[in-house]
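Regression test attached.
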Amino acid sequence: MKGKHEKYMRLALDMAEKARDKTYPNPMVGAVIVKGGRVVGKGYHKRAGTDHAEVAAIKSAGRKAKGASMYVTLEPCDHYGKTPPCTDAVIKAGIKKVHAAMLDPNPITGGKGVRKLRRSGIAVSVGMCANDARELNRKYIKYITTGLPYVTLKLAQSLDGRIAARDGSSRWITSIEARRYTRRMRPTFDAIMIGSNTAVKDDPFLLDEKRKGYDVSRVVVDSRLRMPLGSNLVRTADRAPLLVATTKLASEGKIRKLQQRRGVDVVTLRSGSSGVSLRALLRELASRGIVNLQVEGGGRLAGSLVDGGLVDEVMMFVAPKLIGGDNLSVKSRGARNIAGAVDLKDVRIERFGRDILVTGRI
Amino acid sequence: MKGKHEKYMRLALDMAEKARDKTYPNPMVGAVIVKGGRVVGKGYHKRAGTDHAEVAAIKSAGRKAKGASMYVTLEPCDHYGKTPPCTDAVIKAGIKKVHAAMLDPNPITGGKGVRKLRRSGIAVSVGMCANDARELNRKYIKYITTGLPYVTLKLAQSLDGRIAARDGSSRWITSIEARRYTRRMRPTFDAIMIGSNTAVKDDPFLLDEKRKGYDVSRVVVDSRLRMPLGSNLVRTADRAPLLVATTKLASEGKIRKLQQRRGVDVVTLRSGSSGVSLRALLRELASRGIVNLQVEGGGRLAGSLVDGGLVDEVMMFVAPKLIGGDNLSVKSRGARNIAGAVDLKDVRIERFGRDILVTGRI
């Protein structure tokens, strides 16, 4: 019997999965409605602003929802956001029983949906396939429980941990296959962040030059506002949002030029140990609905994030070459001893052309 | 017909392979004797001082060698070393035809054996399976043509290219599986070399603590002779040779103590750009018959060897963790630009426990 219930919950998880990384700042949610041993409705949350999974499933079930059981990967919400509360829709549809894989991790609203449903006489179970549900929404859970985005540090380094040669150049350490994969992955993030050194030296676009409509927000950490007005990032501020985080060290005149002439979003934040306070910046980004952030270097920004314990996941492309010199991929203060090193978990190894991709969670 | 000949040569290569990395400073050689379409004798060179492959094959063929063809992976030698010339043995045995995969790469003796055989009326072909024969003896070929050992740089680093934490400790960055593999591989080298930092900080034995008879020579690069008399390397100088390379900066008194009291082989060499001239040291090691050298770090020694173009192969264990800080795996001046980076070829990726082993040739 339990196996059957789980089968429906897994179907709901599969539904949720269809919108992987497309729903932020909302979680991914899937729902399945079962009646008389048959699936009579299913749905998932496609993106923020559209129907929640429960509502989509109820719509797909139509009148068959009455008296049915619902399997949903997250506790139904009981609050007004861009759409009305799902609890109301569930009650109104005449659902008799709700299986939720996990409670809403939002500390403000968690548990409210379940209580409301129970008060309405609906039987509610919580916890079926909970681990999978948590895994699915681990980025959202980090965001909603800490007020910080989920940070993936993506770097392209040589085997000896360098991201540029002595002349500062980094084009190209990795193969075309690795770079293509990076480009394909970018639209799955809400924003791409780089440091000012990278912005100045590489003068990147951080746009999907091949495909329209796949651009995401770009963030530059630039405590002294060194980025030239004529840089590619600034020149394309009309194509995809560009947020530049700076400190009081920045020239007022340059801030104005960037904002007024170029439409760049300049945010002045407090200083941390070396430039912009990264924790303050991440809070700022989270408050703007950025859940899934990719940091593409350089070494100083990467090192500060690692030292600050602000990285959740690492995607390291390793090119089988030795570069040497001073341009380290992770310029950090470093662990005091080996036990204090930052261990990666769930490590995966893939090959891209001649390069190796090592991914792991912290 | 050609396929048949190649089959015999491949058998000879397989014979040679049996003594992989055990014959230095001699090459690996295998020989097969064929008569009337049947293999009547085969042999290989087991280690320096024992029968060469041709002689071993002739002995195994006995009187059947007369009128037969020989397939040998390297041109038969025509000089007295620890054993008499193979050419004489081949002629005396009445071999009618010799197929040699490649000429002797020794610039002094190469071609002499073939000329001698031909002058004696034996038909000689050269070049069958030449690539495989060269690949088999690539370490020996490097040694005999350059007067330098074949250098394998073996390092154990974190994903971000560090070999120690801030406190200098490096035990243990890699997993037990990786360390076990390193220990198993050591006896395949003629000597293991480390820098003085590693000798002082890690105080290693560089012995096979688990198995007797598997120890190899140990070499420490120590321009100021910082290594303590009570260090584990010095204390075990009676168990396996210990060579310490130093410069005129070393104290005479300490040299005497190491040599007389401890039986350490201290060699004073000219200084290079940073300490002992590594090229001079490698020449010295080659002159002592060391063909196959493994360098186990630290970062300074590794970097100097890379900068000097003295590394042939890299074995990099990468532990999926971030350590940060200043203890780089390869402390080198570095490539001026990306095109100048040292590329690895024939890259292989293996997993050892949670670690990754990347091997490649330069």
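Expected vs. actual: identical. Chain B touches chain A through 52 residues (CB under 8 Å).
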